[in-house]
Here is the input.
Amino acid sequence: MSESENYALAVNGEVREVKDAWLGESLLYVLRERLGLPGSKGACEQGECGSCTVFMNGNAVCSCLVMAASAVGSEIATVEGLNPDGTLTDVQEAFVSEGAVQCGFCTPGLVMAVHHLLEENPDPSEHAVKEALSGNICRCTGYGRIFAAVDAVVSVRKEMSR
Amino acid sequence: MPVQLPISLSSAIEMLANTPNAQLLSGGTDFMVEVNFNHRHPEHVIGLRNVKELQQWSINSETSTVYIGASVPYSTMETGELAAALPALAQAARTVGSPQIRAAGTLGGNLGTCSPAGDSLPVLSALDATVHLASVDGERNVPFNEFMVGPKRNSRLPHELVSGVTIPMSTGFQGYAKVGVRNAMVISVASVCLALHNDAVSVALGSVGPTILRCPEAEQWFNDLGAQQLTDSIATEFGARVSAESRPIDDHRSTAEYRRHAVGVLATRLLQRGYAQ
Here is the structure.
């Protein structure tokens, strides 16, 4: 066994100390099991399902494929950090109002992917939405309601910016 | 010090010289899968995420080449200036995993892993790219087609790291095509990159041999024809000759027979696309 690791990560704008960790731990594991941030979900552990999506220096990535100890110096944001006061974001509100949540397991990852998409492209085409969400699997297969939620956010944001 | 995170290339190669057995870590999209499934137990890692030099890319119109640093992610190659300069690379990049994987995965990682299914590798082969290796001994430049020597094997020495790639731009069409079991997030069953450069064709195949395969006989047959127009029979014959040069195997993803067929179809299709432009 390698010696234990001590390092600090910048998560949701805070410096979080990680102590006595194993070198091979993924960022997903450290977030959930060491830092008390269980919003990011673990399922496939191989970057297929997207339920562990977080932002790293502004990019949406699978936290299961980030070696946590190599993320020192990167800005990490999780679903818990979207609205730190605990209220829902407009994307989360839309997921609720459009019925885009079934079992809910994929929801945090999808919410992160949608926030990232609309940050890059405020008015995406249907194909752009499908491609942007192609890395997030919903095994309840509720994709229609998820796309409806994206459309709803786009409409509301357009209305607000008028 | 099991994890080292250099911020400059000079410190990275210094660390690697001191610990040549360290695992070099780029986007992590291959390596962490192996760690998560207990196939690898890293003891010493040099993470290249913060090395500024490796994140650079540039287009040199004088030499008609593109330089891409080892840590540039696929998402950067999919659109914009890089995609305009290297359309085949942009197409290959867009087929890699999901958007989340493309934001993390890099050319340096694809070259380090050197899987025959690596999506960017047929492009580097068809365009005769040069791989740059950096070490305390200086820079070593190796043509991609000599760099990859077997499945997941390359000619990088333990104290060297892949710093980047120089890719010539083709004068004509370049395209990439891939077959997988579905459209998103698949490892390729067979892939082809085809480029037209100064009226000569070059074609490289992925997932149908121990390395990426160029097809020298099919290329020479076509180039000797000097065809002004591409007929269906020439395109089909070209595809058949490409198939004949593939060396696929049966495995859990597909059969040799299907792969041999698929690369022929893809090569015919890409040649027709090239001549339709």
